[in-house]
Write a structure and sequence with these properties.
This protein is mainly beta and 705 residues long. It has 3 domains: 3-269, monomeric porin ompg (Porin), CATH 2.40.160; 290-424, GMP Synthetase, Chain A, domain 3 (2-Layer Sandwich); 427-696, no CATH class. It is 15% helix and 42% strand. The strands form 3 sheets. It has a 13-stranded antiparallel beta sheet.
Amino acid sequence: MKLFTAKCLVSLCLSVSAVSLSTATAQTISNYGTPGLLEIPTAEMFEDGTLAFTGSMLDGTLRTTMTFQMLPWVHGSFRYAVIDGFDGAIGNRYDRSFDIHFQLREESSRAPAVALGLRDFGGTGIYASEYLVATKTIQERFKLTAGIGWGRIAGRGSFSNPLGHFFERFNTRPGSGAGGIGTTGQLDFGNWFRGDAALFGGVSWRYSDRLTFMAEYSPDLYPRETQNIGFEARSPLNVGVQYRFKNGAQLTGSYLYGSTLGFSYTYFIDPKKSVAPGGQGASPPPLLPVDRVALASWNLDDDTGRPAQKQAVLRQQLNEQGLRLVSLERHGETVSIGVENGTYGQAAQAVGRAARVLANTQEPEVEAFDIAIVSNGVPLSSVRINRADLYELEYDPDGAWRSFARAEVSNAVPLFEGHLTEGAFPDFKYRIGPYFQASFFDPDSPLRYEIGATLGADYTLRPGFSLSGSVRMPLAGNLDTVTRVSNSVLPKVRSNWGRYAKESDLRLEHLTAEHIWQPGRDLYARATFGYLETMYGGLSAELLWFPINSRLAVGGELNYVKQRDFDVLFGFQDYSVATGHISAYYDLPGDYHAQVDVGRYLAGDYGATLSVDREFNNGFKVGAFFTLTDVGFSDFGEGSFDKGIRLEIPVSWLTGRPTRNKLGQVIRPVLRDGGARLNVRNRLYGFTREARSQQLAKGWGRFLR
């Protein structure tokens, strides 16, 4: 293969190198990265929650696909394909597309599984097709698949659309422009299941747990590839063999269309299972017998220096657990503390560690602990733990969940005000190290990246009021080689991101003064002023209503910002804009979370963004979003509207060691100016959410760890 293949393989390796072991329910994976034989789909599903990354090659075409099993009966895919010389003198075609696949019924002993799917329903339409498919297992080792397809799948042996007997409009498939869909990125509903149809089918034979043989009939004639790159689809028969490794990964070799060899490799990730199950961090401190705690030197008869010694011991032992003591008070038989968690990805684990430290340091007369979770000096919530429950449930097989049932989560402010420990504020933190910034699946390049060094600092003068800044020095990469010009008629509020990379050296990423406080019960407020992000500076203000025990939160944000100079230092350009959104956040049953933002965006357009994420208890997150505004598809330019998928992986999921660091990546088919929103640090919902009851409950499995 040529240079483009090597570049794409680098992109693929970076996408899948991280990861966990999982096996898929689906026996075989197609060249399109979805459950299938070689080129045709099957009606199978992956194990719920599975992420599958596939790279496949055949005669001048490389496809990289990420498929996510969103629900037990539906999976979605994002695909990036590079077709060598597809655009003639212009060069290679870098094509982005989305698939979705619904299982209508599961397989039973007498009936097959049945599924309905759309391939390339939101891209250029090169692979655009729809299908209805059934798959049945015969005597455990054989699987038979048969289906009917429309669009690209309806190539060889096509016939009149059966749906035309019910609705005449299904007899014809409207013209779709040069690549398939008239305007890249639109959902071309008018083409779905229309035009001629064709049958497809195949069989797989699982020779052993490792080896599977496949044969299929594919009606795909590869019309665009035949016309543009000389691909030959001489025969509809494809054959192949697939090998499954011990870690579940699959390698497939095939002979396709009587003319070419194909290869694919699929790696599976199970977000529910960490790379290092159980963790590799230090064990929690064992609970000491109460009578032994009573005899500790700091708990003997009080004298003038004893309270200070008690506080020093408590602070030291909390520090050993990665927690910072902010406030301390004793009220009769209850001790209340405020702690900042700089170590654990789950706030519940921080609460559990703090409770153990309190049990090992406080005199026997103390029967309950109120532990306030604090961030940047702002109290988020308080959890009351009864001392006796810690001892009773320490070795209980279901102790974590029983302890949550007995715990009380409440507002932390009354326990926090006026009881700050000496030296808690001001507080200074800094961070220094390398950074890696990547842009995957650019319209002109599979991978753009930048590596360099970063220095950041946060200075919290008093609770809720902080000064923060960070600088970056890029050292290597190709983010600054972007030459593609946006065809949007909107102000260039995001699409000129390449100029920021090209015309800057030492960058002032942000420099802000920020105040976060609680103006009332269940209310949080934020005001941030300064250089807010790489491209914009100004003023941002936000108000959030978020009751402790509520699944629902509602907030509003107002911003007035100016666009920064391309050197990312202290200057500004002429463009300024007022933006703002009303946002609603809701924890859906299960692992799902939805967010709706309605308001004005950076380009002055008005509209709404819908985001849906699946969030696993360990912090692993997979989501998708789209934005529709009053800007027409043609004015928006390439892509038609803003949309994308996002991944967030806790570093602790990879290493097994406790840390709050996360790896995040947003994948957009193309970044344009419509529907663009300001990037502000510490938006209140994300800032407060970890300490609300819903999130504490999800992470409470780590309370005793």
